[in-house]
Design goal:
Blueprint (H helix, E strand, L loop, with lengths): L2 H30 L8 H16 L1
Length: 57
């Protein structure tokens, strides 16, 4: 094999390793993200009523 062919193979292996590594990093960060969900409007109303009831007492 010629020197240029070996260089191309080495560069290709490095690029593939970088892509796989960055993909795994991105996946692990994505699964680690904690999503925040807004409460339902009915739950907000109930909490406000409970808070108002406590303030009156």
């Amino acid at each position: 094999m010629s020197g240029s062919m070996i260089t191309v193979i080495i560069v290709s292996v490095v690029v593939v390793a970088m892509v796989v590594g960055l993909s795994l990093l991105t996946l692990s960060k994505g699964y680690g993200y904690k999503h925040k969900i807004d409460p339902l409007p009915d739950e907000d109303d109930e909490e406000e009523e409970n808070d108002q009831g406590r303030k009156k007492e």
